[in-house]
Design a protein that fits this description.
4 copies of one chain form a homotetramer.
Chain A: H1 2-12, H2 20-43, H3 49-81, H4 87-96, H5 98-116, H6 123-126, H7 144-153, H8 155-180, H9 191-202, H10 215-251
Helix pairs in contact in A: 1-3, 2-3, 3-4, 3-5, 7-10, 8-9, 8-10
């Protein structure tokens, strides 16, 4: 029993585990998560459900089974990773960690109707929560760390940029609403609808379902579209700088150097 | 009286004020400004006005009251911040500062019709000036400083880029007008209308209401759209570089040195 | 005569000239160039020509007069700037310089019909050459130098990027033509038309006049659109780096530095 | 014979060859490749085929001939470049190299029907493989090396970005499918169709054939479009940083040193 637990602890541990089984286990869970996504996409096809509906339901039951077993194992062996803590504390620590909650939320929507004896009709919308399973992949992406560091480092400036964009959207859509509401009472019915135009213009998406037709409206639209270029430049500049810093720190700057003029070591 | 004035001076002073009231006062004014924005958006909904119209009007009166009191207090206590100046000079200094003018313009549109005995019909368009209140938020965003520094540092290059974009827009729309006016006399009626196409293409918004249909027009459009990529690259590059400089200066790193042996620059 | 020539040489010289008249002369010519652009735009409005047509024609005659006199003066005084050369050589040097040719081309289209005794009908299309006058502004923008340096520095990489984009456009439009020609024989009539779609997608303009409707076509379109993001990233990265280098060189890196750990001067 | 082989080896060798013929040979092959592309484009024009069809077929035969001879020569002389290897090994090395395979694939589709005695109808779709000839240009672009280095250096981060984009697309389109399927059962028929909207929005292409019409859908669309700006910023920042590093390494600059007094890193 003790040996089995030890082996399982190594199996599900993605950081220390070096057994051959660990890599296999990781690939298996990753593949299952991706297959779950594919299943969600397939279920939305009307042509597919009558033919493969049963197959997809069985696959869902199989996935729930695997994820439930995985969750229970992770709870069970979590005291191995924190031998300094009492067993229940180590387990509680895992269960309330970010990845522990993701593991729970990935299976909970399936059990909830049975637990709460709710109407089965509401089960349908709960299916969407299966998307949370994608977050389980998080565990295996160490390469994400650099990008995460950069985003964390720049989160203040990004937040200010988002705030500036929001202010700009409110200003632009209020002005446009007042300019266009008489020419296009339907498309610019209120400032909320006007904001739909503002987002499409500032992000340069430009679906083409709403656009100004008056001269003044076109002038404002042109101005906002040109500002959109600057809006792209701001976060890009911020993120570029943060990347450079991160790169330089990773490289470890201890290369000793010699003067290019006299050749002496510094 | 003197004590009260002192307390109020600390209360409205967002830089030195450390009393607990200061933070509360700042949050209260910020929340009121944001609520004002929401009110402007809500007023534009036809469904909302008949039901909540009175409530929104009362909220506007309340806001005007708070902002007026705030403005008067700021005038009154401004001599506390500049003890070296005579009282009227310190007050005049505040009233003509950028934030002082914003504070005034945020409430003036409400009083103007009464002051000038104007027709009340014009009052409607004055309501738009309430958007100026958003600029009052400026006071509380110290994080904006980095972004403002970067923009100020690059303002010459940005201005040149804007000028280049403008020249490009005039050139492109004059050419396109001559190419397309016979195939689409309505969409490319004059160079002004043609410029609407030029902006939509250069900024890559592409609403799809105006686009060339002749072969030559499509060629020009493709060329302008590809140039649009370069137009995005220019300000992005400028802003990225300025950010890097700003970061490095903040960190207090010396960027380069001279060799201690021969004295030449490295 | 000699004195007048000297004064004129200083007047039109935008680099050495320090007289008060020089700045005035520069502003006058710049304003005239901008006014010429405005006139070209105005002439395209059908409503304006019958009313202000005579006025615009007179303005054109006035502009031609000023630019002709300016050109003749510049030829006359160009030997002052190169006293080491014989007079005719100095003049020929100016006339064949880039700005000298621009000065000539800005007025030539007006005189050409008289010189060649051509039909006046062709005069219409020659009017477009008046756009060349914008290039005269080039003389006064010293701030453009930084941007020009950056573009020159990166011209090899930009050229390679343009080449890659071109290859990508040919590949994408050939594939899309083969995929969509049966579903939309009108929109994807040949590879030329298909390239119109490719440009709109790769530059993310997306007018919406042409888009794939088959599943495979949408897949290719999605792939090209995502590549479009990379296409924006390449020149932006190139230009950012070049800017940084340029900035660093401008700053002169001779700031002596001390070790942040022991405080000693290096 | 030996002399001819030596000459041919120098002729086709784009790295060591310095004879006048080498440059000519390179330009000739490059021009032929570009002309092949133009021919593919021209063949798609219905107006052109009846008139110039024979000419284009002859040009194709001529191209195949040249490329076949080039391929055979390259096989024959490849032992000259690797004198240390036995002849057959040197030849096999070329034939299995990337450029060797490209050279083969550029001509193989023409011979395949004769080799396999297949139906000639399938020959048509094989013509598309002629696009592979473009890759032959690869040989002559040494300037591509910097861009290739940058892409190779950043391939991990780019891959993670692509993965993030993919996750985001699946999430966005699943949500949008559930939001919009009742309002627009045709446009958002299944998650696959919904993904078409997601790509168009996230890349800011915005064709305008599919867009949300419900309030919640517009909110999600606005959110995704704003995220699109961040999606552009990520690869741009990554590539910018890599460029800077590459530039600095090319320049041979030591990026940082250690203090000569206390030995600590600066």
């Amino acid at each position: 029993m003790k040996v089995l637990k030890n082996k399982l602890a190594l199996l599900v541990d993605d950081e220390q585990g070096t057994m051959r089984g660990t890599a296999f286990f990781e690939y298996f869970i990753s593949a299952l998560i991706v297959a779950n996504m594919v299943a969600i996409v397939l279920e939305s096809y009307e042509e597919i459900m009558p033919v493969y509906g049963d197959w997809l339901m069985n696959f869902e039951l199989f996935s729930i089974g695997v994820f439930t077993v995985e969750y229970l194992i992770r709870i069970w062996v979590s005291d191995e990773r924190h031998p300094e803590l009492p067993a229940w504390k180590a387990r509680w620590k895992y269960m309330t960690s970010f990845l522990g909650l993701v593991d729970l939320l990935a299976i909970l929507p399936f059990y909830l109707p049975y637990l709460l004896l709710m109407d089965l009709r509401i089960l349908r919308s709960l299916r969407l929560f299966r998307l949370i399973r994608l977050l389980k992949l998080n565990r295996y992406f160490t390469s994400l760390r650099l990008i995460r560091n950069v985003i964390l480092k720049t989160k203040n400036e990004i937040a200010v940029t988002v705030f500036l964009v929001f202010i700009l959207l409110v200003l632009a859509s209020t002005l446009m609403y007042n300019i266009e509401k008489q020419a296009q009472p339907e498309a610019f019915k209120n400032i909320g609808e006007s904001m739909w135009w503002a987002v499409a213009t500032l992000t340069t998406v430009g679906y083409g379902d709403v656009y100004p037709i008056t001269g003044l409206g076109k002038l404002l639209s042109a101005f906002i579209a040109l500002l959109g270029i600057g809006i792209v430049a701001l976060p890009t500049g911020i993120i570029s700088s943060a990347y450079m810093e991160e790169f330089r720190e990773l490289k470890g700057k201890t290369t000793s150097c010699s003067c290019p003029h006299c050749g002496k070591e510094l």
